[in-house]
Design goal:
Distance between the termini: 38 Å
Oligomer: single chain
Helix content: 25-40%
Strand content: 15-25%
Strand order of the largest sheet: 1-5-6-10-12-11
CATH architecture: 4-Layer Sandwich
């Protein structure tokens, strides 16, 4: 067990996350994993009070400065739920700190904060894009990374808001029935069905929408990854009685981008992801009365 007072102190003084030894890190990882193991692969949220809001946050990628700015907004506006769409680590300068900050929020308030799995919540991608090496530089023992992977493997994959709005990291998969297949399956039972849904699971984390495309076409991102057009997007929504989708996974110079008659919103929550030579603002989404409102994060000078 890890004390709530200690965790609250980390949230109030996040620079202390950089000073944690592995013993404290391990306690946070194990506590968060326990909370995720109580959840389902498909999370379902129903807001009875129409005035309540849900905040949806996209890729963070080790950008602690933007994450803390988002947390200030959350504190000020007090949404009912906060859903992170994954890709918390890799590339940025404070990767472990960002992951620990979000996991600490989860442990302190597991019924308010939620984290979905993105394509960077995997060992293989972390080995290629920086987080694994950062972790090894800090803790020296590759066996300790098993605890990170255990958290990844306990994460939900998507969420549905008020039976109308789907949230996920990448995009819709080719299997139009995937949501029915994973409904009411606990994250701890993923291994029981993984073989039958592996491709869909992968595509939910990796696929991208693309204008003027018909059906599913091959993506430059790699084998098995697809672009999807408005026609199959329409079919997927209709089959699952959905109206809208919020996803992350892509960085746009304008901060967010609408697709398909403003029924799909793509957000990205790391400011200047590619550096100052290609600046972008961070964005997030507010869900209120089944309407999606994109917002830009105004960073303090």
């Amino acid at each position: 067990m890890i004390g709530k007072a200690f965790l609250k102190e980390l949230i109030d003084y996040p620079h202390r996350l950089s000073d944690l030894g592995f013993e404290e890190v391990s306690k946070i990882l194990k506590s968060a994993k326990k909370d995720f193991e109580n959840e389902y692969l498909l999370l379902e949220f129903n807001l009875r009070n129409p005035e309540k809001e849900i905040y949806v946050i996209g890729d963070i990628h080790g950008n602690l400065e933007t994450l803390l700015e988002l947390y200030d907004i959350i504190k000020a506006q007090n949404p009912e739920f906060v859903i992170f769409l994954g890709d918390i680590v890799d590339r940025g300068s404070k990767q472990l700190e960002c992951l620990l900050f979000i996991l600490t929020l989860k442990v302190l308030n597991p019924q308010r904060y939620y984290l979905l799995r993105g394509n960077h919540e995997t060992l293989e991608i972390n080995q290629n894009y920086g987080f694994y090496q950062e972790f090894l530089n800090r803790f020296k023992d590759p066996r300790k990374f098993i605890e990170i992977s255990a958290v990844y493997n306990s994460l939900p994959i998507c969420a549905v808001i008020n039976s109308k709005i789907l949230c996920l990291h990448g995009g819709i998969p080719q299997d139009i029935h995937i949501l029915q297949k994973i409904k009411d399956i606990r994250t701890t039972d993923l291994s029981d069905i993984f073989e039958s849904i592996a491709q869909s699971f992968f595509q939910i984390m990796w696929n991208d929408p693309k204008m003027k495309v018909k059906g599913f076409t091959d993506s430059f991102r790699g084998p098995g990854i697809k672009f999807f057009g408005e026609d199959v997007f329409d079919s997927f929504l209709k089959e699952n009685n959905l109206e809208l989708l919020i996803r992350a996974h892509e960085c746009f110079p304008e901060g967010f981008r609408w697709f398909f008659q403003k029924r799909l919103l793509s957000i990205f929550s790391s400011t200047n992801y590619r550096g100052s030579f290609s600046p972008n603002p961070a964005s997030y989404a507010v869900i209120r009365k089944n309407v999606i409102i994109p917002k830009i994060v105004n960073m303090k000078e």
